[in-house]
Amino acid sequence: MSYQFLRVELFSRKGKSGRGTSFLFDEVERRPSASLHVPEPGEPVVVYGMDVPALRALHDTRADAARATTKAGKTRAVRSDQNTVAGVVLSYPTSMTEYRESADVRRDFERWEVRSVAWLREQYGDRLACVVRHEDESYPHLHAYVLPDVADAEMRASVLHPGFRAKSAVKDAGTQPGEDEKALNKRADAAYKAAMRSWLDDYHVKVSQPCGLTRLGPGKRRLTRAEWQAEKSQARALRTALDRASVVKSKVESFVQARRDETKSLVGTAETTAAALKAEADAAKADAARRLAEAAKATETAKAHADAAVREQRKARSMMSLVREETAKVRAASARLQRLPTMLRTMIDGFRVSKVAARVRAAVADEMERLREQALSAERRADAAYKQASAAEAARQKADDKVRTFDAALTETQAQRDAARREVQRLRPPEPTPAVSLGPGFGLRPTPGRR
User: Fold this and answer.
1) CATH of range 1-160; options 3.30.930.30, 2.130.10.10, 2.60.40.10, 3.40.50.720
2) φ, ψ for residue 285, nearest 5 deg
3) CA distance 9 to 383
4) How confident is the model over 319-341, as pLDDT tens digits?
5) Using CA atoms, how far apart are residues 127 and 133, in angstroms rounded to an integer?
6) What are phi and psi of 34, to 5 degrees?
7) Whole-prediction pTM value?
8) Options 1.10.1660, 1.20.58, 1.10.3470, 1.10.287; CATH of 255-427
9) What is the DSSP pairing of strand 128-134 with strand 5-12?
10) Strand partners, 11
11) How does pLDDT run across 128-142, given as a tens digit for each residue?
Protein backbone atom coordinates (compact mmCIF):
# COMPACT_ATOMS: atom_id res chain seq x y z
CA MET A 1 0.00 0.00 0.00
CA SER A 2 1.08 3.63 -0.56
CA TYR A 3 -0.17 7.16 -0.05
CA GLN A 4 -3.41 8.83 -1.10
CA PHE A 5 -3.97 10.76 -4.33
CA LEU A 6 -6.76 13.35 -4.56
CA ARG A 7 -7.07 16.33 -6.93
CA VAL A 8 -9.78 18.86 -7.80
CA GLU A 9 -9.81 20.98 -10.97
CA LEU A 10 -12.26 23.47 -12.55
CA PHE A 11 -13.22 23.55 -16.24
CA SER A 12 -14.90 26.07 -18.54
CA ARG A 13 -16.46 25.58 -21.96
CA LYS A 14 -13.57 27.38 -23.66
CA GLY A 15 -10.91 25.76 -21.50
CA LYS A 16 -7.14 26.13 -21.55
CA SER A 17 -4.99 24.62 -24.28
CA GLY A 18 -8.05 23.01 -25.80
CA ARG A 19 -9.09 21.24 -22.60
CA GLY A 20 -12.62 22.58 -22.23
CA THR A 21 -15.72 20.81 -20.97
CA SER A 22 -16.28 19.05 -24.32
CA PHE A 23 -12.79 17.54 -24.20
CA LEU A 24 -13.31 16.68 -20.51
CA PHE A 25 -16.48 14.71 -21.25
CA ASP A 26 -14.92 13.09 -24.36
CA GLU A 27 -11.95 11.93 -22.29
CA VAL A 28 -13.97 10.42 -19.46
CA GLU A 29 -16.30 8.79 -22.02
CA ARG A 30 -13.21 7.38 -23.75
CA ARG A 31 -13.85 8.81 -27.20
CA PRO A 32 -10.84 8.06 -29.45
CA SER A 33 -9.97 11.72 -30.17
CA ALA A 34 -9.57 12.45 -26.44
CA SER A 35 -8.04 9.12 -25.35
CA LEU A 36 -4.72 9.05 -27.21
CA HIS A 37 -2.86 8.60 -23.89
CA VAL A 38 -4.63 5.28 -23.27
CA PRO A 39 -3.26 2.34 -25.32
CA GLU A 40 -6.50 0.34 -25.08
CA PRO A 41 -9.44 2.53 -24.01
CA GLY A 42 -12.09 0.68 -22.02
CA GLU A 43 -15.70 1.40 -21.21
CA PRO A 44 -16.07 3.63 -18.12
CA VAL A 45 -18.05 2.14 -15.23
CA VAL A 46 -20.70 4.41 -13.67
CA VAL A 47 -20.34 4.18 -9.87
CA TYR A 48 -22.77 6.91 -8.83
CA GLY A 49 -25.30 9.23 -10.47
CA MET A 50 -25.98 9.67 -14.16
CA ASP A 51 -23.92 8.44 -17.09
CA VAL A 52 -21.54 10.70 -19.07
CA PRO A 53 -23.90 11.53 -22.02
CA ALA A 54 -26.61 12.63 -19.56
CA LEU A 55 -24.02 14.67 -17.63
CA ARG A 56 -22.87 16.37 -20.84
CA ALA A 57 -26.44 17.22 -21.88
CA LEU A 58 -27.33 18.60 -18.44
CA HIS A 59 -24.19 20.73 -18.23
CA ASP A 60 -24.54 22.20 -21.72
CA THR A 61 -28.23 23.01 -21.20
CA ARG A 62 -27.57 24.78 -17.91
CA ALA A 63 -24.49 26.60 -19.26
CA ASP A 64 -26.47 27.91 -22.26
CA ALA A 65 -29.23 29.16 -19.92
CA ALA A 66 -26.84 30.71 -17.35
CA ARG A 67 -27.00 34.51 -17.11
CA ALA A 68 -24.80 37.12 -15.42
CA THR A 69 -25.73 40.65 -14.38
CA THR A 70 -23.33 43.47 -15.31
CA LYS A 71 -22.50 46.46 -13.12
CA ALA A 72 -24.91 48.48 -15.25
CA GLY A 73 -27.72 46.08 -14.28
CA LYS A 74 -27.97 44.38 -17.67
CA THR A 75 -28.29 40.63 -18.08
CA ARG A 76 -26.06 38.73 -20.47
CA ALA A 77 -24.92 35.18 -21.13
CA VAL A 78 -21.99 34.03 -19.00
CA ARG A 79 -18.55 34.10 -20.56
CA SER A 80 -17.31 30.94 -22.23
CA ASP A 81 -14.13 31.01 -20.13
CA GLN A 82 -16.07 30.96 -16.83
CA ASN A 83 -15.64 27.70 -14.96
CA THR A 84 -18.94 25.78 -14.94
CA VAL A 85 -17.98 22.29 -13.71
CA ALA A 86 -15.58 20.81 -11.13
CA GLY A 87 -13.75 17.53 -11.67
CA VAL A 88 -12.29 15.45 -8.83
CA VAL A 89 -9.78 12.62 -9.47
CA LEU A 90 -9.25 9.94 -6.82
CA SER A 91 -6.61 7.24 -7.47
CA TYR A 92 -6.01 3.96 -5.66
CA PRO A 93 -2.29 3.06 -5.29
CA THR A 94 -2.23 -0.48 -6.66
CA SER A 95 -1.45 -1.63 -10.18
CA MET A 96 -4.12 -2.90 -12.54
CA THR A 97 -2.27 -6.23 -12.69
CA GLU A 98 -2.68 -6.72 -8.92
CA TYR A 99 -6.26 -5.43 -9.19
CA ARG A 100 -7.15 -8.07 -11.81
CA GLU A 101 -5.25 -10.99 -10.25
CA SER A 102 -5.92 -10.58 -6.50
CA ALA A 103 -9.36 -10.92 -4.95
CA ASP A 104 -8.02 -9.35 -1.74
CA VAL A 105 -6.87 -6.25 -3.65
CA ARG A 106 -10.27 -5.93 -5.35
CA ARG A 107 -11.99 -6.25 -1.98
CA ASP A 108 -9.78 -3.49 -0.52
CA PHE A 109 -10.41 -1.32 -3.59
CA GLU A 110 -14.18 -1.74 -3.34
CA ARG A 111 -14.02 -0.71 0.32
CA TRP A 112 -11.99 2.39 -0.65
CA GLU A 113 -14.43 3.16 -3.49
CA VAL A 114 -17.50 3.02 -1.22
CA ARG A 115 -15.84 5.29 1.35
CA SER A 116 -14.70 7.71 -1.38
CA VAL A 117 -18.18 8.07 -2.87
CA ALA A 118 -19.65 8.58 0.62
CA TRP A 119 -17.04 11.29 1.30
CA LEU A 120 -17.87 13.03 -2.02
CA ARG A 121 -21.57 12.93 -1.11
CA GLU A 122 -20.73 14.48 2.26
CA GLN A 123 -18.69 17.22 0.58
CA TYR A 124 -21.01 18.17 -2.28
CA GLY A 125 -24.45 16.70 -1.57
CA ASP A 126 -26.88 16.87 -4.49
CA ARG A 127 -24.35 18.83 -6.53
CA LEU A 128 -22.42 15.58 -7.10
CA ALA A 129 -23.78 14.55 -10.51
CA CYS A 130 -21.62 11.65 -11.65
CA VAL A 131 -18.82 9.29 -10.49
CA VAL A 132 -17.19 6.87 -12.97
CA ARG A 133 -14.37 4.33 -12.65
CA HIS A 134 -11.60 3.79 -15.21
CA GLU A 135 -9.82 0.44 -15.36
CA ASP A 136 -7.80 0.96 -18.55
CA GLU A 137 -4.76 2.85 -17.16
CA SER A 138 -1.88 1.97 -14.81
CA TYR A 139 -3.97 2.43 -11.66
CA PRO A 140 -7.70 2.07 -11.02
CA HIS A 141 -9.15 5.51 -10.31
CA LEU A 142 -12.39 7.48 -10.05
CA HIS A 143 -13.56 10.64 -11.84
CA ALA A 144 -16.23 12.69 -10.03
CA TYR A 145 -18.04 15.67 -11.60
CA VAL A 146 -19.80 18.36 -9.62
CA LEU A 147 -22.16 21.00 -11.04
CA PRO A 148 -23.00 24.30 -9.26
CA ASP A 149 -26.29 24.73 -7.44
CA VAL A 150 -29.37 25.03 -9.63
CA ALA A 151 -30.23 28.25 -7.76
CA ASP A 152 -26.98 29.85 -8.98
CA ALA A 153 -28.06 31.66 -12.17
CA GLU A 154 -24.42 32.36 -13.14
CA MET A 155 -23.39 28.70 -12.71
CA ARG A 156 -20.15 29.57 -10.92
CA ALA A 157 -17.99 26.48 -10.28
CA SER A 158 -15.37 28.41 -8.29
CA VAL A 159 -17.37 27.89 -5.09
CA LEU A 160 -16.89 24.11 -5.54
CA HIS A 161 -13.10 24.39 -5.12
CA PRO A 162 -12.15 24.61 -1.40
CA GLY A 163 -8.94 26.55 -2.09
CA PHE A 164 -10.50 29.09 -4.48
CA ARG A 165 -13.46 29.51 -2.12
CA ALA A 166 -11.17 30.34 0.84
CA LYS A 167 -8.99 32.64 -1.27
CA SER A 168 -12.01 34.54 -2.64
CA ALA A 169 -13.35 35.04 0.89
CA VAL A 170 -10.09 36.73 1.93
CA LYS A 171 -9.94 38.85 -1.23
CA ASP A 172 -13.58 39.93 -0.95
CA ALA A 173 -13.03 41.03 2.68
CA GLY A 174 -10.35 43.49 1.45
CA THR A 175 -7.15 44.69 3.07
CA GLN A 176 -6.74 45.01 6.82
CA PRO A 177 -5.32 48.12 8.54
CA GLY A 178 -1.67 48.62 7.55
CA GLU A 179 -1.88 45.97 4.81
CA ASP A 180 -1.15 46.62 1.12
CA GLU A 181 -2.36 44.68 -1.91
CA LYS A 182 0.73 42.45 -1.95
CA ALA A 183 0.22 41.44 1.67
CA LEU A 184 -3.46 40.77 0.95
CA ASN A 185 -2.53 38.45 -1.92
CA LYS A 186 -0.04 36.65 0.31
CA ARG A 187 -2.67 36.16 2.99
CA ALA A 188 -5.17 34.94 0.37
CA ASP A 189 -2.61 32.39 -0.93
CA ALA A 190 -2.05 31.18 2.63
CA ALA A 191 -5.81 30.73 3.05
CA TYR A 192 -5.86 28.75 -0.23
CA LYS A 193 -3.15 26.36 1.04
CA ALA A 194 -4.74 25.97 4.46
CA ALA A 195 -8.14 25.14 2.91
CA MET A 196 -6.63 22.57 0.55
CA ARG A 197 -4.61 21.04 3.39
CA SER A 198 -7.77 20.76 5.51
CA TRP A 199 -9.66 19.24 2.56
CA LEU A 200 -6.97 16.58 2.05
CA ASP A 201 -6.69 15.92 5.80
CA ASP A 202 -10.44 15.32 6.02
CA TYR A 203 -10.24 12.82 3.15
CA HIS A 204 -7.32 11.07 4.84
CA VAL A 205 -9.10 10.71 8.19
CA LYS A 206 -12.41 9.50 6.72
CA VAL A 207 -11.19 7.42 3.73
CA SER A 208 -7.46 6.83 3.40
CA GLN A 209 -6.61 6.06 7.02
CA PRO A 210 -9.29 3.35 7.43
CA CYS A 211 -8.06 1.88 4.11
CA GLY A 212 -4.40 1.74 5.19
CA LEU A 213 -3.11 4.66 3.06
CA THR A 214 -0.68 7.29 4.29
CA ARG A 215 -1.31 11.03 4.03
CA LEU A 216 1.94 11.92 2.18
CA GLY A 217 4.56 10.06 0.14
CA PRO A 218 8.25 9.69 1.08
CA GLY A 219 9.68 12.10 -1.51
CA LYS A 220 8.38 15.39 -0.17
CA ARG A 221 9.50 14.55 3.36
CA ARG A 222 12.82 13.00 2.18
CA LEU A 223 12.28 9.73 4.00
CA THR A 224 14.68 6.84 3.64
CA ARG A 225 13.37 3.59 2.22
CA ALA A 226 13.40 2.00 5.66
CA GLU A 227 11.45 4.92 7.15
CA TRP A 228 8.94 4.77 4.29
CA GLN A 229 8.46 1.02 4.67
CA ALA A 230 7.99 1.48 8.42
CA GLU A 231 5.36 4.15 7.81
CA LYS A 232 3.50 1.93 5.34
CA SER A 233 3.60 -0.93 7.86
CA GLN A 234 2.21 1.42 10.48
CA ALA A 235 -0.60 2.45 8.11
CA ARG A 236 -1.46 -1.20 7.44
CA ALA A 237 -1.38 -1.96 11.17
CA LEU A 238 -3.68 0.99 11.80
CA ARG A 239 -6.11 -0.27 9.18
CA THR A 240 -6.05 -3.74 10.77
CA ALA A 241 -6.65 -2.21 14.20
CA LEU A 242 -9.55 -0.14 12.87
CA ASP A 243 -11.03 -3.22 11.19
CA ARG A 244 -10.76 -5.20 14.42
CA ALA A 245 -12.23 -2.32 16.39
CA SER A 246 -15.12 -2.19 13.92
CA VAL A 247 -15.70 -5.94 14.29
CA VAL A 248 -15.53 -5.72 18.09
CA LYS A 249 -17.89 -2.73 18.08
CA SER A 250 -20.32 -4.64 15.87
CA LYS A 251 -20.19 -7.67 18.17
CA VAL A 252 -20.64 -5.53 21.28
CA GLU A 253 -23.57 -3.71 19.70
CA SER A 254 -25.12 -7.05 18.71
CA PHE A 255 -24.61 -8.40 22.23
CA VAL A 256 -26.04 -5.28 23.84
CA GLN A 257 -29.00 -5.35 21.44
CA ALA A 258 -29.60 -9.01 22.25
CA ARG A 259 -29.50 -8.30 25.98
CA ARG A 260 -31.77 -5.29 25.46
CA ASP A 261 -34.24 -7.47 23.53
CA GLU A 262 -34.02 -10.15 26.23
CA THR A 263 -34.66 -7.57 28.92
CA LYS A 264 -37.63 -6.20 27.01
CA SER A 265 -38.98 -9.75 26.66
CA LEU A 266 -38.55 -10.40 30.40
CA VAL A 267 -40.17 -7.11 31.28
CA GLY A 268 -43.04 -7.83 28.89
CA THR A 269 -43.52 -11.31 30.37
CA ALA A 270 -43.42 -9.90 33.88
CA GLU A 271 -45.93 -7.23 33.02
CA THR A 272 -48.21 -9.82 31.41
CA THR A 273 -47.92 -12.06 34.48
CA ALA A 274 -48.53 -9.12 36.78
CA ALA A 275 -51.60 -8.12 34.80
CA ALA A 276 -52.93 -11.70 34.97
CA LEU A 277 -52.29 -11.88 38.73
CA LYS A 278 -53.92 -8.51 39.25
CA ALA A 279 -56.96 -9.59 37.24
CA GLU A 280 -57.18 -12.83 39.24
CA ALA A 281 -56.85 -10.90 42.51
CA ASP A 282 -59.51 -8.45 41.43
CA ALA A 283 -61.83 -11.34 40.54
CA ALA A 284 -61.13 -12.99 43.90
CA LYS A 285 -61.84 -9.72 45.72
CA ALA A 286 -65.08 -9.28 43.81
CA ASP A 287 -66.13 -12.88 44.59
CA ALA A 288 -65.27 -12.42 48.26
CA ALA A 289 -67.25 -9.19 48.39
CA ARG A 290 -70.23 -10.93 46.79
CA ARG A 291 -70.03 -13.81 49.25
CA LEU A 292 -69.73 -11.40 52.19
CA ALA A 293 -72.83 -9.55 50.97
CA GLU A 294 -74.76 -12.82 50.67
CA ALA A 295 -73.60 -13.90 54.14
CA ALA A 296 -74.61 -10.56 55.62
CA LYS A 297 -78.02 -10.86 54.01
CA ALA A 298 -78.45 -14.44 55.27
CA THR A 299 -77.34 -13.34 58.74
CA GLU A 300 -79.94 -10.58 58.77
CA THR A 301 -82.65 -13.06 57.68
CA ALA A 302 -81.64 -15.58 60.36
CA LYS A 303 -81.61 -12.83 62.96
CA ALA A 304 -85.13 -11.79 61.93
CA HIS A 305 -86.36 -15.40 62.21
CA ALA A 306 -84.69 -15.80 65.61
CA ASP A 307 -86.36 -12.61 66.84
CA ALA A 308 -89.73 -13.92 65.63
CA ALA A 309 -89.14 -17.22 67.46
CA VAL A 310 -88.26 -15.35 70.67
CA ARG A 311 -91.47 -13.34 70.36
CA GLU A 312 -93.53 -16.57 69.90
CA GLN A 313 -91.84 -18.15 72.92
CA ARG A 314 -92.72 -15.10 75.03
CA LYS A 315 -96.31 -15.35 73.81
CA ALA A 316 -96.45 -19.04 74.80
CA ARG A 317 -95.07 -18.24 78.25
CA SER A 318 -97.76 -15.57 78.64
CA MET A 319 -100.49 -18.07 77.73
CA MET A 320 -99.10 -20.60 80.25
CA SER A 321 -99.21 -17.88 82.90
CA LEU A 322 -102.91 -17.35 82.11
CA VAL A 323 -103.55 -21.10 82.45
CA ARG A 324 -101.85 -21.15 85.85
CA GLU A 325 -103.92 -18.15 86.95
CA GLU A 326 -107.20 -19.89 85.85
CA THR A 327 -106.19 -23.06 87.70
CA ALA A 328 -105.52 -21.05 90.83
CA LYS A 329 -108.97 -19.40 90.56
CA VAL A 330 -110.71 -22.83 90.21
CA ARG A 331 -108.91 -24.16 93.24
CA ALA A 332 -109.91 -21.10 95.23
CA ALA A 333 -113.57 -21.59 94.20
CA SER A 334 -113.43 -25.27 95.19
CA ALA A 335 -112.18 -24.35 98.65
CA ARG A 336 -115.30 -22.23 99.20
CA LEU A 337 -117.60 -25.22 98.64
CA GLN A 338 -117.39 -26.30 102.26
CA ARG A 339 -121.09 -27.16 102.57
CA LEU A 340 -120.94 -30.19 100.23
CA PRO A 341 -119.70 -33.49 101.47
CA THR A 342 -116.02 -33.93 101.28
CA MET A 343 -116.14 -36.73 98.71
CA LEU A 344 -118.58 -34.99 96.44
CA ARG A 345 -116.57 -31.81 96.73
CA THR A 346 -113.40 -33.69 95.99
CA MET A 347 -114.91 -35.46 92.97
CA ILE A 348 -116.45 -32.31 91.68
CA ASP A 349 -113.24 -30.38 92.23
CA GLY A 350 -111.19 -33.10 90.63
CA PHE A 351 -113.51 -33.32 87.70
CA ARG A 352 -113.50 -29.57 87.24
CA VAL A 353 -109.73 -29.29 87.53
CA SER A 354 -109.16 -32.15 85.09
CA LYS A 355 -111.70 -30.72 82.69
CA VAL A 356 -110.16 -27.25 82.82
CA ALA A 357 -106.66 -28.63 82.45
CA ALA A 358 -107.70 -30.78 79.49
CA ARG A 359 -109.43 -27.78 77.94
CA VAL A 360 -106.32 -25.61 78.40
CA ARG A 361 -104.00 -28.30 77.07
CA ALA A 362 -106.23 -28.82 74.02
CA ALA A 363 -106.28 -25.04 73.44
CA VAL A 364 -102.52 -24.51 73.57
CA ALA A 365 -101.22 -27.86 72.17
CA ASP A 366 -101.39 -26.83 68.49
CA GLU A 367 -99.99 -23.39 69.20
CA MET A 368 -97.02 -24.83 71.14
CA GLU A 369 -96.27 -27.33 68.35
CA ARG A 370 -96.28 -24.51 65.81
CA LEU A 371 -93.97 -22.44 68.02
CA ARG A 372 -91.57 -25.37 68.43
CA GLU A 373 -91.42 -25.86 64.63
CA GLN A 374 -90.74 -22.14 64.12
CA ALA A 375 -87.98 -22.19 66.71
CA LEU A 376 -86.30 -25.24 65.10
CA SER A 377 -86.57 -23.65 61.63
CA ALA A 378 -85.06 -20.40 62.93
CA GLU A 379 -82.22 -22.36 64.53
CA ARG A 380 -81.50 -24.22 61.27
CA ARG A 381 -81.47 -20.96 59.27
CA ALA A 382 -79.16 -19.39 61.82
CA ASP A 383 -76.76 -22.36 61.48
CA ALA A 384 -76.83 -22.06 57.65
CA ALA A 385 -76.17 -18.32 57.84
CA TYR A 386 -73.23 -18.92 60.19
CA LYS A 387 -71.75 -21.49 57.77
CA GLN A 388 -72.11 -19.06 54.80
CA ALA A 389 -70.48 -16.28 56.80
CA SER A 390 -67.57 -18.64 57.66
CA ALA A 391 -67.16 -19.62 53.97
CA ALA A 392 -67.20 -15.94 52.89
CA GLU A 393 -64.55 -15.09 55.52
CA ALA A 394 -62.35 -17.98 54.25
CA ALA A 395 -62.75 -16.76 50.62
CA ARG A 396 -61.79 -13.23 51.69
CA GLN A 397 -58.70 -14.56 53.49
CA LYS A 398 -57.72 -16.54 50.34
CA ALA A 399 -58.14 -13.43 48.16
CA ASP A 400 -55.93 -11.44 50.58
CA ASP A 401 -53.27 -14.18 50.32
CA LYS A 402 -53.37 -13.99 46.50
CA VAL A 403 -52.99 -10.19 46.62
CA ARG A 404 -49.96 -10.50 48.93
CA THR A 405 -48.46 -13.12 46.55
CA PHE A 406 -49.04 -10.81 43.56
CA ASP A 407 -47.39 -7.87 45.38
CA ALA A 408 -44.32 -10.02 46.18
CA ALA A 409 -44.08 -11.28 42.53
CA LEU A 410 -44.41 -7.72 41.20
CA THR A 411 -41.66 -6.45 43.56
CA GLU A 412 -39.33 -9.28 42.48
CA THR A 413 -40.07 -8.61 38.75
CA GLN A 414 -39.25 -4.91 39.18
CA ALA A 415 -35.98 -5.81 40.90
CA GLN A 416 -35.08 -8.17 37.99
CA ARG A 417 -35.90 -5.44 35.47
CA ASP A 418 -33.71 -2.87 37.30
CA ALA A 419 -30.86 -5.39 37.48
CA ALA A 420 -31.17 -6.09 33.72
CA ARG A 421 -31.07 -2.36 32.97
CA ARG A 422 -27.93 -1.93 35.12
CA GLU A 423 -26.32 -4.89 33.31
CA VAL A 424 -27.09 -3.34 29.89
CA GLN A 425 -25.64 0.00 31.05
CA ARG A 426 -22.49 -1.78 32.28
CA LEU A 427 -22.01 -3.67 28.99
CA ARG A 428 -22.55 -0.63 26.75
CA PRO A 429 -19.20 0.18 24.99
CA PRO A 430 -17.61 3.64 25.30
CA GLU A 431 -17.75 5.99 22.38
CA PRO A 432 -14.76 5.45 19.98
CA THR A 433 -12.01 8.08 20.16
CA PRO A 434 -11.80 10.08 16.89
CA ALA A 435 -8.86 9.05 14.76
CA VAL A 436 -5.94 11.49 14.48
CA SER A 437 -4.24 12.34 11.21
CA LEU A 438 -0.92 10.60 10.80
CA GLY A 439 0.87 13.37 9.00
CA PRO A 440 0.57 17.16 8.83
CA GLY A 441 1.35 19.23 5.83
CA PHE A 442 0.05 19.56 2.36
CA GLY A 443 1.31 17.96 -0.77
CA LEU A 444 0.25 16.57 -4.07
CA ARG A 445 2.31 13.98 -5.80
CA PRO A 446 2.35 13.66 -9.55
CA THR A 447 -0.35 11.50 -11.05
CA PRO A 448 0.79 7.86 -10.96
CA GLY A 449 -0.60 7.53 -14.44
CA ARG A 450 -2.13 9.96 -16.86
CA ARG A 451 -5.76 10.55 -15.99
Assistant:
1) 3.30.930.30
2) -60, -45
3) 108
4) 777 767 777 776 776 666 555 55
5) 19
6) -110, 10
7) 0.52
8) 1.10.287
9) unpaired
10) 85
11) 999 999 999 999 999
